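Good morning C.,

I know you're traveling, so I'll keep this short. The sequence:
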Amino acid sequence: MQLRYVASEFGSGLKRNVSMTVAVILTIWISLSLVGLGLLIRSQIGLIEEELGSRLEVKVVFCAKNSQTPTCIEGEATRDQELAVQETLRDSAYVSKFRYETREAAYKGFVARYSDQDGNETSIADEVEVSDMSTAYWATLASPDDDEELLREVQNSPGVEQVVNLREFLDPYYDTLTMLQRLALGGAALLILASVLQVSNTIRLAAMARRREIGIMRLVGASSIYIQLPFLLEILFAALVGAALACGSLLLVMTRFVPWLEREVRFWGWVDMDAAYTAMAVIIAIAVSVAVIPTLVMTRKYLKV
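The tokens, ready to paste straight into the viewer:
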């Protein structure tokens, strides 16, 4: 009998508050979709750092015969100067491995960059000879955060023209992703706050509409949880529907947008379904919290007669 009453009140409550229920569902849907998107972006940032971190290299470029930088006023780097840098790299705790690039290898790379689509050398490549190229060491970092320490060790070495830190080229990508993550999570936080306020208003209006029924139930000795349960079920239903729609939105991103990125952008790997499942679990937990906590707090206030 009691369960039948709770089910009846739950159904009639949804019918009386259709517009408020739809508003709660939409607000929770949009806010939790942004939460999930922010979590996916955070996972993507971690994936990029993990994947490219092991491949981040610092290029130590030696003075060539035509180098014009102030550090090359003594002319082309000698073999002894190259060996001194080699010893520094070998003894450095910030380097996991390194390799030497000859003038011939540097020339091949230069020609490849300045050739047309048919492989023909352009006028720029024609003017450069092998002897004009610089030798270099490519050092792989032991940790992505070791770039500054390694720069301090080698940048003032004799015969070194410049030290190229490849992390500087990746920083704009990290900054863009971090900004998108903050925007998504910031917007989600505001919308979650709006969801909490929406839930509170829904409880207040529902309680006012049922004042007489609540008073009668109090008089006959009904417990607080028995009176609160229909309100809780209404809000929990709306929250779970909103969470389901948000999870569906993430699945759409993972099945449509991410495969397109995998085809078009191949610099690094992209998030997989495991990251999406984790985000969905967080979404459901937030939805339940947004439904249960405000409802229990507000019903204690508005259900007193």
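Safe travels,
E.
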